[in-house]
Write a sequence for this structure.
């Protein structure tokens, strides 16, 4: 190297821009071929147990998971079984959501391995047991936006994230599909896993498909990943995603869907360049079918569709009716395939989707079509607990999109079986009535009195507008008034609004 | 409310033993709903279905829907029990199954009149329709159509009919004679002609083809077995904007001529015959009725 022509201390203000002193030498270069380097796999550890040991996990810490494998997930049960075997206790399990497949957690809760749960929702045996007082510490239910917010602020600090991934390279670039092959498991978008990978102290990727560097595109970049574990089984492909979500043939849902499409149109939110989100329920999904026809008839396009994405939305994108898709969660294989092959169909992470304290995509929505288990005469919506008071649902992005969108539309039958769904008071409030604008049933449309201009437009379009009270009356007249559900005093769940304030509590059901 | 003359494009079958469907059947937009006590109810459930339909007619509100009940054959021992229950509950129209002769209508009417009198219902309130489902019935269609003032229409029941003919349902050619007979008989009596069901619910194209055919023949409407068939059927019966404009012009010319006291109606230099005026009037009435979006009493 040539002789030095400067002295470090003579450079003006040097301490203000450099802390590393003078250049001395380059590091020893690795001249192995790219192929050879790929063999070294420095982040890939031999076993799940080794990764857990290396992560520094201790009793009382918080572990996180994502729910992109839905009811086909084998990661959570596998990891918690290993943690139990290794003797861990008093852990907080923070998953972006939980499904029926997670019933084995009951055993580990009883053993004290898991003592706290944070989730968006819960179903099946685990939910049944939680509703009957399984846990001493209440389950914290957050919306997707609320969770993103809590993770970002540190309110929900993640010590170790265990993130299942359908593909990962040896450096940790992980994704929900792989452009290297067409046979491996897919979950599509991994939007809910991304903030966990970013914010966790330690991130462990669990994959059954180690692909060559670079695994592009990736949901999770290598810079967020500490260890990789290669396992045989991350989940059941059939449970992770079905081939295609089919449009409902249920005539009642079709009436609701058609009315909902006409309502958003009448309210002025279907125009050239509009934006939308559809929930995953039968009626909300079918609304897309009627909107599609409107768009074709009128020659208009949607600028972007957001949220959980189905094959129907992907097909409208491929038809040229929807210009861009922001996909936080792919609901079916057709959606995942579209994400894989269409460059205007992009993964979006949960903060970008729905964060509360900064701009998020939900705020750019013209309208959202959402389902409900029950809705009350104050327009409050419950999507978490069933008519028996037992937890059987998930908050998801319900309150995030309802508040963010210019028009929030709830699609809900007046009754299900012998149960009224438009009621004087919901059992639990998940989305407050102040952010719910229109309730569409198969027997009339109710508009929140806070939006009189919407009511006027719907009436002018000939839609059957009625008061929400009259709809609750109609429901009660046709199926009667159910006995109130009895609860004990013990609080088994806490419902957080998207700003992470407490909006309601779920109490233990009383079956005595 | 029982009305002899009204729009009857879609008459939706509702099994009498299905409480969920009985509760919600009015929401799908059919002009009439028909609670079935006959073939869709197994022999084990006849009493329960009759009780259910009685309660529904008695307690539930169905807005402006025409409420029809298909009873069991009077000779079966069940039909009379059905009549006792539904006439008392205020059914609008009794649908008589397997009508072979005018006598079947007369026998049924006699029982209805008796039940009305016993329950202080003005005699004649309850209307009737007759389903024709055999070769005999088709050949007697004219007498059947004229058998009672209570009849609002006669209908074809194709499944039994094709069996009687020793054929099966195919492209519709097998029903052509029966359809034409029933249509002409109905028109001769000044009542409605109503077509049979199309059973393949998932074949919308086939359904629309059949609906188009029966509309061309002159039928007033058709029975449907699934709510999904209602909208396509209504679309088939909905006049086009072009036809409506023409009808409006005809009626304009007609009213102008009437105002002038002239017996001759002319439009664009052409004379218009009376049947053209009648058709134009019917078309406009149909369009007006079809446009009405029923907002249930709230």
């Amino acid at each position: 190297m040539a002789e030095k022509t400067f002295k470090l201390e003579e450079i003006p203000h040097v301490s203000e821009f450099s802390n590393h002193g003078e250049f001395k030498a380059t590091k020893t270069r690795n001249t192995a071929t790219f192929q050879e380097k790929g063999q070294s796999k420095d982040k890939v550890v031999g076993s799940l147990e080794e990764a857990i040991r290396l992560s520094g996990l201790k009793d009382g810490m918080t572990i996180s998971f994502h729910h992109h494998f839905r009811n086909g997930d084998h990661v959570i049960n596998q990891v918690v079984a290993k943690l139990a075997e290794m003797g861990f206790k008093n852990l907080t399990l923070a998953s972006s959501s939980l499904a029926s497949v997670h019933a084995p957690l009951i055993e580990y809760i009883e053993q004290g391995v898991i003592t706290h749960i944070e989730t968006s929702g819960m179903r099946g045996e685990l939910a049944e047991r939680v509703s009957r007082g399984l846990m001493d510490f209440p389950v914290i239910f957050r919306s997707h936006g609320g969770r993103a917010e809590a993770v970002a602020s540190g309110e929900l600090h993640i010590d170790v994230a265990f993130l299942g991934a359908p593909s990962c390279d040896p450096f940790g670039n992980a994704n929900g599909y792989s452009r290297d092959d067409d046979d491996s498991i897919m979950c599509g978008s991994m939007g809910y896993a991304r903030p966990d990978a970013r914010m966790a102290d330690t991130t462990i990727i669990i994959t059954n498909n180690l692909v060559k560097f670079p695994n592009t595109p990736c949901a999770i970049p290598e810079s967020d990943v500490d260890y990789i574990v290669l396992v045989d089984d991350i989940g059941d492909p059939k449970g992770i995603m079905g081939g295609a979500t089919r449009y409902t043939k249920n005539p009642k849902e079709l009436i609701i869907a058609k009315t909902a499409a006409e309502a958003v149109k009448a309210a002025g939110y279907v125009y050239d360049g509009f934006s939308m989100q559809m929930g995953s329920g039968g009626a909300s999904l079918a609304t897309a079918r009627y909107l599609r026809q409107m768009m074709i008839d009128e020659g208009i396009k949607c600028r972007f569709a957001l949220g959980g994405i189905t094959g129907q939305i992907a097909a409208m994108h491929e038809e040229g009716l929807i210009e861009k898709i922001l996909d936080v969660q792919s609901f079916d294989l057709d959606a995942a395939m579209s994400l894989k092959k269409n460059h205007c169909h992009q993964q979006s992470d949960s903060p970008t989707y729905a964060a509360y304290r900064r701009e998020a995509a939900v705020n750019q929505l013209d309208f959202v079509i959402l389902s409900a288990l029950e809705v009350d005469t104050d327009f409050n919506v419950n999507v978490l607990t069933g008519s028996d008071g037992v937890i059987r649902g998930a908050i998801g992005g319900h309150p995030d999109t309802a508040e963010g969108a210019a028009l929030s539309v709830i699609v809900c039958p007046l009754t299900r079986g012998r149960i009224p769904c438009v009621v004087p008071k919901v059992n639990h409030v998940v989305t407050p009535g102040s952010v719910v604008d229109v309730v569409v049933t198969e027997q009339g449309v109710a508009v929140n009195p806070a939006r009189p201009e919407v009511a006027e437009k719907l009436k002018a379009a000939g839609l059957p507008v009625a008061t929400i009270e009259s709809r609750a009356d109609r429901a009660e007249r046709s199926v009667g008034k159910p006995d109130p559900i009895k609860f004990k005093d013990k609080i088994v769940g806490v419902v957080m609004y998207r700003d992470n304030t407490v909006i309601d509590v779920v109490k233990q059901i009383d079956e005595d | 409310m029982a009305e002899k003359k009204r729009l009857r494009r879609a008459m939706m079958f509702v099994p009498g033993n299905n409480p969920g469907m009985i509760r919600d059947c009015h929401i799908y937009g059919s002009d009439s709903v028909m609670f079935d006590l006959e073939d869709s109810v197994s022999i084990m459930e006849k009493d329960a279905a009759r009780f259910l339909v009685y309660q529904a007619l008695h307690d539930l509100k169905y807005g402006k829907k025409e409420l029809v009940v298909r009873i069991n054959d009077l000779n079966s021992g069940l039909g009379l029990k059905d009549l006792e229950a539904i006439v008392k509950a205020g059914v609008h129209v009794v649908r008589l199954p397997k009508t072979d002769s005018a006598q079947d209508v007369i026998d049924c009417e006699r029982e209805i009149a008796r039940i009305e009198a016993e329950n202080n219902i003005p005699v004649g309130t309850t209307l009737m329709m007759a389903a024709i489902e055999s070769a005999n019935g088709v050949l007697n269609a004219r007498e059947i159509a004229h058998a009672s003032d209570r009849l609002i229409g006669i209908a074809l029941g194709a499944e039994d009919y094709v069996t009687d003919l020793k054929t099966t349902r195919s492209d519709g050619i097998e029903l052509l004679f029966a359809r034409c007979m029933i249509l002409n008989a109905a028109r001769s009596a000044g009542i409605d002609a109503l077509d049979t069901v199309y059973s393949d619910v998932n074949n919308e194209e086939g359904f629309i083809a059949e609906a188009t055919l029966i509309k061309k023949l002159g039928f007033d409407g058709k029975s449907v077995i699934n709510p999904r068939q209602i909208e396509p059927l209504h679309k088939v019966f909905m006049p086009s904007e072009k036809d409506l404009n023409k009808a409006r012009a005809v009626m304009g010319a007609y009213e102008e001529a009437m105002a002038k006291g002239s017996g001759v109606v002319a439009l664009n230099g052409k004379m218009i015959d009376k049947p053209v005026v009648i058709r134009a009037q019917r078309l406009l009435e149909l369009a007006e009725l079809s446009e009405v979006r029923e907002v249930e009493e709230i």
Summary: The beta strands of chain B are 10-15, 32-36, 66-70, 93-96, 127-132, 151-156, 192-195, 221-224, 265-267, 270-272.
